[in-house]
Write a structure and sequence with these properties.
By secondary structure, the chain is an alpha+beta fold. It has two domains: about 160 residues, Ribosomal Protein S5, domain 2; about 140 residues, Alpha-Beta Plaits (2-Layer Sandwich). It is about 40% helix and about 25% strand. The strands form two sheets. Strands 1, 2, 3, 4, 5, 6 and 7 form a seven-stranded mixed sheet that branches. Strands 9-10-8-11 form a four-stranded antiparallel sheet. Strand 6 and strand 7 form a beta hairpin. The radius of gyration is 20 Å and the shape is globular. The chain binds (3R)-3-hydroxy-3-methyl-5-(phosphonooxy)pentanoic acid. (3R)-3-hydroxy-3-methyl-5-(phosphonooxy)pentanoic acid binds next to helix 4 and helix 5.
């Protein structure tokens, strides 16, 4: 009998990068895009079949060296559950584009951790899954804030401050985001490190940028909670300009952001690690088609609209 677990993708609405340095950030799940893990009990030992990555790996839980994020996720989970590896194969898959700021890594880890627990006949709370996936994120990213694992594990809009319990956000008035993919992937780890370098080299200047982003996030939270969706657009534009100051935009992101605004989006910004990956545009119902077409015309390799509610 096959059992299945899954986890959603995510979008960071406000505050990426600044969140690594202590500012708040807001992220929402994108439930239409998912990572899945199908557990087929049987066989001997635990095997992970990573369909998207074209890899099959037996999990050598006895080995001391862990140089693979999937194996790390499995071992940390078994350690927490204090149980031996179950006899099973876990088939991993995802409809989330990789390395593009949509949280594919954290979503795959989340589905896998849940699948290992299921295969072992145990259960884990969301808080425990979040703790485990954060450990894997550290392996992937070096210095993650923890926002990706949190929004994905709880699959709820979050207002997040590093090292503090996440606050779940209520979306008072649903809104639509159009998401455009530049088709250029960039490793979050490298971009986060570059921003670290800037902050270390010019602490006074960049402390101000981070503080201004924090204020934008605060205003965005208020707008989301009071249902003043229209005021989110200018806040996105401002946040994007500050991300540009942090050097995490790219020519392709600039082209898409400008195309979305010119087609009538209320605001637009890059989302996630930047220097490639995705941008988001806050778009009224009457402009969705125009913004989608404009993004395709400006070179986006993938465009879709998602409702935040
Ligand atoms: O994984 P991405 O591309 O969504 O970026 C994560 C957001 C950052 O703020 C850039 C890094 C972090 O750990 O918060």
């Amino acid at each position: 009998m096959t059992m299945q677990t899954s986890a959603s993708a995510k979008i960071i609405l406000f505050g990426e990068h600044a969140v690594v340095h202590g500012a708040p950030a807001i992220a929402v799940p994108v439930s239409d895009l998912r990572a899945t893990a199908a557990v087929v009990p049987g066989g001997s030992g635990l095997t992970i079949n990573a369909l998207n990555l074209n890899r099959v790996l037996p999990v050598e839980v006895a080995s001391d060296v862990v140089d693979d994020a999937l194996v790390l996720a499995v071992r940390k989970t078994l350690d927490m559950l204090n149980t031996p590896p179950p006899d099973a194969t876990i088939h991993l898959g995802a409809t989330i584009p990789m390395a593009s700021g949509l949280g594919s890594g954290a979503a795959i880890s989340t589905a896998l951790v849940r699948a290992v627990a299921l295969a072992a006949g145990c259960s884990l709370s969301d808080a425990q899954v979040n703790e485990l996936v954060y450990e894997v994120e550290k392996f992937h990213h070096g210095n993650p804030s923890g926002i990706d694992n949190t929004v994905i594990v709880f699959e709820k809009p979050v207002y997040f401050v590093r090292d503090q319990p996440p606050e779940l956000l209520h979306i008072t008035r649903p809104f639509t985001l159009v998401i455009g993919d530049t088709g250029h992937s960039a490793l979050t780890k490298i971009v986060v490190k570059a921003v670290d370098g800037l902050v270390a080299a010019q602490p006074d200047r960049f402390a101000l940028v981070i503080e201004r982003i924090g204020k934008i996030v605060w205003s965005a939270r208020r707008a989301i909670e009071t249902g003043e969706v229209e005021s989110l657009g200018p806040l996105m534009d401002e946040n994007h300009a500050l991300l540009r100051d942090l050097t995490v935009s790219s020519p392709e992101l600039e082209t898409l952001v400008q195309a979305a605004r010119a087609a009538g989006a209320m605001g637009a910004k890059l989302s996630g690690g930047g220097r490639g990956g995705n941008m988001i545009a806050l778009t009224g119902e009457d402009r969705i088609e125009q913004v989608v077409n404009a993004l395709h015309g400006a070179g986006a390799v993938r465009v879709f609209a998602t409702r935040v509610e």
